[in-house]
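W.,

You were right to be curious about this one. When I first looked at the sequence I had no strong expectations either way, so I just let the prediction run and decided to look at it fresh. Below is the sequence, 74 residues in total, followed by the output.
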Amino acid sequence: MSDHFLVVTGGPGAGKTSLITELARRGFYTIPESGRAIIRKEIASGGGALPWGIAWPMPSDWPAAGSVDTKIRP
């Protein structure tokens, strides 16, 4: 694993997950984009914190969401 790290940012639908998926496919170490986990959780619970919803409340676990996916994969 390299000592160089990059942070990928952008709004919903900007291509972050596609980029991360392609980098992983090419053998780079990646950490999955945490927004996907939040969206899955909100859909499963019937919550309203969705980028395409009318209201965008901040879930109580939002600050911890980035630390959930800490498994590095090849």
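Here's what jumped out at me. The CA atoms of residues 22 and 34 lie 16 Å apart. And, maybe more interesting for your project: The radius of gyration is 14 Å.

Coffee later to discuss?

I.
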